[in-house]
Amino acid sequence: MSLANSHTHEHVFLGSSHDENARRTLWVVLLTVAMMVVEIAAGAITGSMALLADGFHMATHAGALGIAAAAYAYAKRHANSPRYSFGTGKVGDLGGFASALILALVSLGIGVESVMRLLDPAEVQFGTATLIAVVGLVVNIVSALLLGHGHSHDHDHHHGHDNNLRSAYVHVIADALTSVLAIAALLAGRYLGWVWLDPVMGIVGAIVIARWAWSLMGVTAGVLLDRTDEHVAAEIRERVEQPGDARITDLHVWRVGPDAHAAIVSVVGSATTDAEGIRERLKPVHEVSHLTVEFRAV
């Protein structure tokens, strides 16, 4: 039995857009914190509980976005650390999972508060609240444009899946959604007298955000638990077994970073091939950045 590993190399599996996405996320954190301060201050000055609630709601998003920014910084700082066998490429997924949990708690909080307001309506300063909500929406749109460009860049050009960026993007979109629903409800309350619409919109927003959080948790948990990438595994199996002189007996394929996978391939084959031959067959599988081949001749 022979064991062939890839040539010695660094285990740095950060996304190709890591630094750019980190900068974009940091800018969004600063914008979110600034808007949070404005909303809380405006709520305290006007006595509007709606604005105070939205300000503290935005504070949770600022915290989650801060986690995303910290994850980028940590992954970069420790990318070459020998403490991490496969590098820090999955730190972003850990940050994304944490952000998804926060997003789920935010949706729960919005839902509970909305039900309470539906049962016990509170007086709302429609004019001031609408103005602040519009400003918040503008901030969210700017933030979404910043993160959305990096999000589409990863998918369209590098076929990567930066779940840390995705989590930040989902938080911003969730904020934008709540702002749109709030504006619609506030305008309806001011001009149509539909005070009940405000908490109803809150419930709708909470349900939508909860679904996003659940989806994000599922994706990031799969990466953290080393779920097999079926597409890459199928390509590996086809390239190894198609010539008919080798058979895979054990195969492990998992993500180690936004643009990188690792694979351990155990093969039984005829004496006409060997581990290096199997490695040559797998060179076209560009998703695999760290390959281990175990070969046994029969």
**Helix-strand topology string:** EHHHHHHHEEHE
Main sheet?
A: 4 strands, mixed
CATH topology of the largest domain: Alpha-lytic protease prodomain-like
The overall pLDDT average reads 79
Task: Describe it.
- The protein is an alpha+beta fold and 298 residues long.
- The N and C termini lie close together (10 Å).
- It has 8 helices and 4 strands.
- Strands 1-4-3-2 form a 4-stranded mixed sheet, with helices on one face.
- The protein folds into 2 domains: 18-224, Cation efflux protein transmembrane domain (Alpha-lytic protease prodomain-like, Up-down Bundle); 228-297, 2-Layer Sandwich (Alpha-Beta Plaits), CATH 3.30.70.
- Strand 2 and strand 3 form a beta hairpin.
- The chain is 66% helix and 12% strand.
- The protein has helices spanning 18-46, 49-77, 91-119, 126-157, 163-192, 197-224, 230-241, 275-282; strands at residues 2-5, 246-257, 260-269, 288-297.
Task: List strands and helices in order, with pairings.
Blueprint: E1 2-5, H1 18-46, H2 49-77, H3 91-119, H4 126-157, H5 163-192, H6 197-224, H7 230-241, E2 246-257, E3 260-269, H8 275-282, E4 288-297
Parallel strand pairs: 3-4
Antiparallel strand pairs: 1-4, 2-3
List keywords for this structure.
12% strand, 298 residues, four-stranded mixed sheet, Alpha-Beta Plaits, Alpha-lytic protease prodomain-like, single chain, alpha+beta, disordered N terminus
Short description:
The chain has 298 residues and is an alpha+beta fold. The chain is 66% helix and 12% strand.
